Structure formats: C-alpha cells, structure tokens
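lol forgot to send this yesterday, sorry. struct tokens for the thing we talked abt
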C-alpha cells in the first residue's frame, strides 16, 4: 500500500480512537485536542511521500506513538523548568544523576505516582498537587478551599495511602487497558431543539461510555474512573458536562442525593428495544391491511382535497399522508396507555426530550423523521411553511432551521404555484429552476413551470389530515391490545423516576412502523417511491397571503 492512502484512514471511527489515545495521555480535553491535531498533521504529511508501506493502520499508529513521544519530551522539559526538585524528593527519592539505571527506575516510579494522583477525586487531587507539586503551605491550601488545616492533613493522609496501595500494584495497573471500546447508541430527539439539545454535548466516545455506565446503575466519579481506568479529572469534567446538558437545565445524566450520577432519559438496552418492538411487530400486518383497505375506500376523498397544484396525483397525496397514518396508530396506543395505565405519570414539563437505545450489531437503521421550516414575507406571501418526511425510501430535502430566503430552488416552487413562464426568468433564475426540477420541486410542461410539491392555502391547513383521522376508529381494538402489553414492558424497563417518559418508549417501539407501512403500500401498488430517493414525494407546502 502506498503512503498516499494514509489520509483515507482519517474517518470518524479512527479519529475517535485517536482522540481517546490522546485523552488518556494528557491533562485535559484542550491538551488532548492539541496532541490529536499534531498526530493528524503528521499522518497527512507522511501521506505526501511516495513509498510503499505494509499496513496503513499500523503505520499510522506508529506515527501517533512517535508524535506523542516528542510531545511528552517537550512537556517534561517544561515541567522541569517550572517545578523545583523538592516535591520530587517528597514524593519519591530520586537517585544521583550518575546512576542512570536507578534514576530510570525511580523516574518510572515517579510517573506512576503522578498518574495515580490524576485518579484521585477533585478534593484529594487538589491538596496533593498544591502541596507536593506547587509547594503551597497547608495554611494557604486550607484558606483556598475554605476548610480547616486539619481537614487538609486528613485528605493528604488518605490520598497518600491510596497512592501507595496503587503503586504497589503498578505492574497490574499499567497493563490494564482503558475500557473505551465503541458504544453504539441511537439517541433521538423530539420537540424544540432550540431550547436545549443535550445530544450536542454527548457526541464523544467517552461521553457515550459514561452515559451508558450510569444507565445500568447510579455511579460515582470514582467508580466510573475505576471502571474505565480513566483519570478522575476527565471523568469529573464529563459528569459535569452531561448533567448540565447544553442549557444547564436538561442533561443526559442527573446527580442523585447520594452524589452519584444516574441516567436522565429513557435509554433501552438491546433486549429491551427488541422486546417492545416485537409487541408492535406482532400487530403490524393487521394494521397495514387495515390502512390499505381504508385508502382504497377513500381514494376519491383524498383526490378531492383543494390543493393549489396544476396537477395532483394520489401517489403524492399518500406520501404526504403516510407519516400521519403510521403515527396515528402509535398515538392511539399512547392514548390507551395514558387513560388506563399512566394517568398519574405526568409528562415532564420540558420543550425538548431525548430517548434512545443501544444499537443491535448488524441491525438495519430505522431512522425517520418529519421536519418543517417557516419563512415570512417571501415571494409575495405573508407566511410559507414547508414540511418533508424522510425514511429509507426518501432522502431529506431540508432540516429544521433551513433558510428559505437562501434557497433558490424552493423559491422557484413558491413562485410557480400558478404557473411560471420559463421566458420570464433570468439566467441565474433558470439555474435555480433547473435545480428545482432535478430535486422534484417543479414540473415543466412546454414553456411553463408548475409546482410539483403538494401545495395548499393556509385556510385548509387544519383540515389536511381530516380524512386520515378516520383511521382512529379502525385502530381502536389493535391499539388497546398493544397498550396492555406495552404497559407491562414499560413498567419493567423504566426506573420509577423516569416513568413520566413512558410515552417516549412507546415511540421507540413504533419506530419500524413507518418503513413497514411504506413497504406494505408499495407492495400493494398504492405507493411509488421516487428515483434515487429524492422528489416531491413526502414534501408539502402551506401558503398564507
């Protein structure tokens, strides 16, 4: 393999592993990022050389080790300039400089002592660093911490005993690997993410590990540090981040009265997610049959809805309605659960919630969603609202927060509701129109462009799903049976303090419903998916003059 292939290794998985490698060898996240950047630069630089290598991965890690060795040497030189000899002598007796072998052994022992200090909790770590490394007197340490001098001495005594015990087992501790193997979690959000989405601070490998450990049982920083063989400073920092979340009000973890940290959202393991999905799966064939029969009986009603489009076909209408059809069954199960089982479990008062599960290896993705965007005073309309769904068969056009004022293709679709002559467009507008035709927003007939996205006047917005609402009665019996089984499973899965999130577990169980229904309707010839997954299917627009 040529060295030019080295930069191709720099994917998310490799960078996660590389960052974990750096994180374990530095004092904080900023220093870890700096070291990681140096290693990445060295790998890219090596990739510019024309020569052969036996194994790219091994070669990349050899580069990482060499860069770290240089980094550690520079750090040691800086440390020797800043710290006097006295703290070293207090911690461990260093031999004379001419006794190189003894000095090497003592140096290794000192490094182990310093390493064990990093595994102490913040309260004990501070007094050890301030006294032994910074040379502060006990009186000043006590003043800084607002505690008595006797308390400082007690903490130092306890910390020294802990370090002495761990250094005695130095060989074992050095061989013990840091437990940061991949944890594949699928965490979903619902509501208004602008309020605060805690997933934004839970995207690193260490974050996922800490959250998953606390999911099994409430854990202290010391317990997590020991489990992961990770310095306490990193663990304490991570726990603080995950308990505050992005907005300081809603995090992935919560701190208990005992000082431990527990999971703060519904997170299911592999057996639990399989269990709740199987409850729904046993009823899906019946539900899909009921929906297909309902569509056949109400085709004319769907076609008669007052869309503004030049042309409307049933396929586009059903793609618009299918997400609502699938979610209505979950909603009926939710209503039954609320009424009969969880009337006392009040829904948590927060604008945004997360929930998820640990991914089963080899399992297909059930990711789906429905995102909407708004624009005001654009293309002659007071308000424009666009929505698109996305699943296995359909790719997403846009996400929440997308800026319509900067999207020429969408603007072309808005302008073409009543028809738009191609001759009236400038060259730049023609480019936007071509993009709109390519992605399914526009339909061209001769010299005229028409909006292909299903479009309706805001006057009829509240009636959009009225026909599909008739499925509620059709679903009633199946929904009641599913609710009975789901109630038993939810009570066994969720801890009592998270019981208000029962409805989110129900959403997880229903996740395969959307794709399953779509495939069933495609098989019956009622739905036709777009080529390459992108088109007007699953997209609609509401206009207000």
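and heres what i got for the seq, position by position
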């Amino acid at each position: 393999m040529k060295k030019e292939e080295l930069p191709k290794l720099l994917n998310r998985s490799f960078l996660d592993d590389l960052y974990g490698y750096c994180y374990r060898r530095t004092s904080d996240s900023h220093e870890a990022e700096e070291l990681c950047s140096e290693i990445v630069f060295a790998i890219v630089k090596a990739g510019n050389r024309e020569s052969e290598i036996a194994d790219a991965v091994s070669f990349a890690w050899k580069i990482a080790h060499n860069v770290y060795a240089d980094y550690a040497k520079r750090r040691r030189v800086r440390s020797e300039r800043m710290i006097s000899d006295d703290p070293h002598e207090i911690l461990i007796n260093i031999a004379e400089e001419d006794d190189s072998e003894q000095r090497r052994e003592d140096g290794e022992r000192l490094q182990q002592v310093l390493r064990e200090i990093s595994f102490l909790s913040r309260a004990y770590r501070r007094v050890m660093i301030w006294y032994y490394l910074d040379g502060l007197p006990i009186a000043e340490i006590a003043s800084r911490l607002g505690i008595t001098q006797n308390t400082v001495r007690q903490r130092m005594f306890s910390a020294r005993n802990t370090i002495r015990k761990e250094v005695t087992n130095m060989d074992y501790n050095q061989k013990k690997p840091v437990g940061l193997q991949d944890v594949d979690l699928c965490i979903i959000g619902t509501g208004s993410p602008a309020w605060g989405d805690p997933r934004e601070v839970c995207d690193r490998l260490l974050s996922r590990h800490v959250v998953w450990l606390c999911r099994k049982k409430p854990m202290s920083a010391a317990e997590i540090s020991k489990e992961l063989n990770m310095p306490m400073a990193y663990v304490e920092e991570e726990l603080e981040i995950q308990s505050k979340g992005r907005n300081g009000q809603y995090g992935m973890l919560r701190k208990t009265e005992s000082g431990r940290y527990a999971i703060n959202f519904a997170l299911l393991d592999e057996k639990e997610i399989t269990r709740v999905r199987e409850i729904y799966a046993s009823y899906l064939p019946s539900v899909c049959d009921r929906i297909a029969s309902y569509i056949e009986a109400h085709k004319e009603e769907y076609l008669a809805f007052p869309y503004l489009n030049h042309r409307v076909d049933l396929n586009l209408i059903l793609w618009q309605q299918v997400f609502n059809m699938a979610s209505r069954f979950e909603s009926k199960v939710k209503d039954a659960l609320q009424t009969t089982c969880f009337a006392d479990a009040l829904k948590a008062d927060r604008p945004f919630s997360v929930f998820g599960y640990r991914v089963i290896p080899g399992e297909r993705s059930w990711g789906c969603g429905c995102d909407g965007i708004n624009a005001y005073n654009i293309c002659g309309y007071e308000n424009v609202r666009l929505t698109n769904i996305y699943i296995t068969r359909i790719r997403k056009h846009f996400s929440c927060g997308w800026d319509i004022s900067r999207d020429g293709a969408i603007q072309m679709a808005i302008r073409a509701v009543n028809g738009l002559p191609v001759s009236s467009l400038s060259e730049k507008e023609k480019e936007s129109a071509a993009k709109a035709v390519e992605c399914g927003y526009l339909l061209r007939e001769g010299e005229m462009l028409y909006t292909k996205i299903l479009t309706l006047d805001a006057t009829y917005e509240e009636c959009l799903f009225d026909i599909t609402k008739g499925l509620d009665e059709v679903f009633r019996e199946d929904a009641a049976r599913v609710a009975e089984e789901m109630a038993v499973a939810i009570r066994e899965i969720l801890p009592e303090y998270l019981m208000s999130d029962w409805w989110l577990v129900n959403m997880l169980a229903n996740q395969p419903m959307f794709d399953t229904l779509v495939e069933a309707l495609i098989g019956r010839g009622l739905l036709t998916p777009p080529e390459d997954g992108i088109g007007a299917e699953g997209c609609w627009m509401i206009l207000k003059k």
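Confidence is low (pLDDT under 50) at residues 79-99, 172-178. anyway ping me if u want another try
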